[in-house]
Amino acid sequence: MGLSSETLELPMDLVTDEILTRLPAKSLMRFKCVSKHWLSVICSKYFSNRFLTVPAPRLYLSLRDLNDKGKSVILSLAPSSSSSTTPSSFVVDHDLTIPRMGGNIVQFFRGFMCYIYRSRAHIYNPATRQLVTLPFINSRNMIVPRGGDKVVYYYFGHDPINDQYKVVSLISVYSLNGAKVMSKNWVFDLKAGGGGSWREAALTPPEFSPHQLAVRGGVCIDGVIYYVVYVDYKAVVVSFDVRSEEFNMIQIPPRDGDEDLRRTLDWSLTQNLSILEHGGKVTLFDQTILKDKGVLALWTLEDVRSKKWSCKSQTLKLCQMHLISNIKFLIRGTTQKGALV
Fold first, then answer.
1. Could you tell me the pTM of the whole model?
2. What phi, psi does 61 have (nearest 5°)?
3. Transmembrane segments in this chain: where (predicted)?
4. Which of 64, 91, 66 lies closest to 79 in space, CA to CA?
5. If you write DSSP's letter for every residue of 240-288 in order, what string do you get?
6. 159, 290, 268, 158: which is closest to 216 by C-alpha?
7. So what's the pLDDT on residue 331?
């Protein structure tokens, strides 16, 4: 029996959803030249959204040079050729560094990096190496008291209905030892080419406190940005609906160590609480009492409407306590299997 000369043609939806979405952006740019049909597919909004949301086994590594004004190097790491379907080793395949890159990466979302450099927010697309630098916020009327300080944080989100990206900024001014805090929220509509301007946000509902001190890092889930602030020395989660621009506060259940901040006025304690997305839900990584009692806790917001939380904790054995005497965990996110990294 002779071999058939017929060519097996794969369905285009299979090619789009299962093959093209897993390719690096550089390859996709070349494939746009295959035909007009491929050009229209790759440039379509549907494919862009699929490409940004399909998880890929890739890591991004940020190396910061503290001796060179905070200059950073961004490296892309892909699974090594010898890795299985669940890779355990990665190799550097691209250097994504560009001029004017530095500071701290505070959020990685839908293929974009949001980082702070010299008090300004920058949005970077590592696939195309496009960089948008947001303008300074005019906050000169927020006067810093003697011995106090001003801190600026940024949070990046996307409205999937209107396909609109926005950046929220919280600027806090506080007095010596953080005894008095005043803050303002600002919103930036990110447009094509990076145009736009900052506008001060209206705080709703009325009980939304203007006395907030923020914690670095936020997440965006289903069109809502979440981040942690401290109000009257107590941690709460703030939600910002990207579409309606409505702010709300979500109370966190009482935790061990809640009174330490009020008692010591040591604001470095605020870094013991990190926010991340875990299983599609807002999750808090809590190491407040790790050094005292050896306890790590994960608080998960099970239902946003009812504001119901659940908690899972891990307690170290007494013989393990010496291992964490000088350690502080910095949680950046989760793997595809849900492990914290």
1. 0.78
2. -115, 125
3. none
4. 91
5. EETTT--EEEEEPPP-TTTTHHHHH--GGGGGGEEEEEETTEEEEEE-T
6. 268
7. 67
